[in-house]
Amino acid sequence: RCFEVDDSSLTQAISTLRKMLKDSTKSPEFVKTVPKRGYQLICSVERMSTPTSEPNAELEDVDAEESTLENVTEEIQAQPQVEDSVSTDPSSVSGNATPLSAAKVSSKNNWFTRAILFVAVLLPIIVFTLTKPAESQFRQIAEFSGVPVMTPANHPQLMQWMPSIEQCVARYVENHTNDVMPVKVIA
Is 48 exposed, middle or buried, given 0-12, 13-18 or 19+ CB atoms closer than 10 A? Predict the structure, then answer.
């Protein structure tokens, strides 16, 4: 049998393998990406035998697996870019492998996360306490029923709105005779 392997199916297979092994692309423990070359297995591999009741069946399974592996190996060796990227020398595999323990990775991530959260909480507090909002300057443009009407100094003229503002203030004063009078109106 022959298996045709293209880049997308190889990428998908490696992605699936990494998901199953819970292997990170940032700090891989099993499969390392070699840029513009391919992938490299960086973990140690041991063959495990499974006990079966029929020794002959086990031998047949092993023979079938070996023949399939030989076919796949020949297929892979036919592709030069993949052949260069896969190292079968055991000394190079163990020399390149520097897997971090899960505790070390978790410890580094935990420290980094706490530092980011601390900065995220501290930064708004610092900005809030060190900056003072600019106070707006107001100018009085009119007075209706004893209530001054103010407008920000940088605001455009409101002369066309004066009748509406006067009507609003007069109605408020009429309808709220028992309430406290407004101190000022900002328009």
Answer: exposed
pLDDT, average across residues 85-105: 50
Model-level pTM? 0.30
Do you know the residue count of the chain? Answer: 187
Residue % of the chain over a pLDDT of 70: 67
Contact 53, 107 (CB under 8 A): no
The two three-digit tokens of residue 23, written as one number: 């292997």
What are the residue boundaries of the structural domains of the chain, listed by start?
7-99, 100-131, 138-186
Taking every pair of C-alpha atoms in the chain, what is the biggest distance, in angstroms? Answer: 109
- The helix/strand/coil state of 131 is coil
Please tell me the distance from the alpha carbon of residue 84 to that of residue 61, in angstroms, as a whole number.
30
Contact present, 145 and 177 (Cβ < 8 Å): no
Tokens standing for residue 30: 């099993």
